[in-house]
Amino acid sequence: MKKFKFPKFKIQKAEPQQLTERLLLINLYFTQGLTLIIGVVWILLQKRNLLDVLAWPDNYQFIWWGLGLAGIMLVMDLVLSYVIPQESMDDGGINEMLFRGRPIWHIVCIAAIVAVCEELLFRGAIQHAIGPYWTSILFAVIHIRYLRHWIPTGWVFISSYGLGWIYLQSGTLWAPILCHFIIDLVSGLAIRFRRGS
């Protein structure tokens, strides 16, 4: 009987300059899939109904919460990009590599997937357990590419706290999902068209 050899996988830290676009996309989709699974399992372990957590709201007031916070955050991000030195806001070129040559439909898909997966885990599961403050600290920590500089780390914390706040105010997870989607979409399109022109 012939023995089957399993390939050896080695997990190691990759610097941004070592990443290819393909590897970055694989990493993005893998981590978002993992985020989704952890979020769903955590919600179920809390003995909550996933369909209730993701229930579509009866009214459309959540749209104003999502669009309003997204608008404020995008304006603040624009102000920060003019006030703060560029090297202080550097994420190692990850966002640039992710969105630079991406088709518009793919940017929309990435923004939607990230918004749903991350908000389900962080606002839907974790915030329910530990509240918006500690959730925002955890959210900032997992955005590890920003941890080299305190300004983007602080901005991620504030953004996360804002997402948690509109979740509490609107009573629906769709408000932070919409806000997160708009921010990622506009940021991705800005990178794509800024570099494409």
TrEMBL record:
<feature type="transmembrane region" description="Helical">
    <location>
        <begin position="174"/>
        <end position="193"/>
    </location>
</feature>
<dbReference type="InterPro" id="IPR052710">
    <property type="entry name" value="CAAX_protease"/>
</dbReference>
<dbReference type="GO" id="GO:0008233">
    <property type="term" value="F:peptidase activity"/>
</dbReference>
<feature type="transmembrane region" description="Helical">
    <location>
        <begin position="63"/>
        <end position="84"/>
    </location>
</feature>
<protein>
    <submittedName>
        <fullName>Membrane protease YdiL (CAAX protease family)</fullName>
    </submittedName>
</protein>
<keyword id="KW-0378">Hydrolase</keyword>
<keyword id="KW-0645">Protease</keyword>
<feature type="transmembrane region" description="Helical">
    <location>
        <begin position="104"/>
        <end position="122"/>
    </location>
</feature>
<dbReference type="InterPro" id="IPR003675">
    <property type="entry name" value="Rce1/LyrA-like_dom"/>
</dbReference>
<feature type="transmembrane region" description="Helical">
    <location>
        <begin position="151"/>
        <end position="168"/>
    </location>
</feature>
<dbReference type="GO" id="GO:0006508">
    <property type="term" value="P:proteolysis"/>
</dbReference>
<keyword id="KW-1133">Transmembrane helix</keyword>
<feature type="domain" description="CAAX prenyl protease 2/Lysostaphin resistance protein A-like">
    <location>
        <begin position="103"/>
        <end position="186"/>
    </location>
</feature>
<dbReference type="Pfam" id="PF02517">
    <property type="entry name" value="Rce1-like"/>
</dbReference>
<feature type="transmembrane region" description="Helical">
    <location>
        <begin position="23"/>
        <end position="43"/>
    </location>
</feature>
<keyword id="KW-0812">Transmembrane</keyword>
<keyword id="KW-0472">Membrane</keyword>
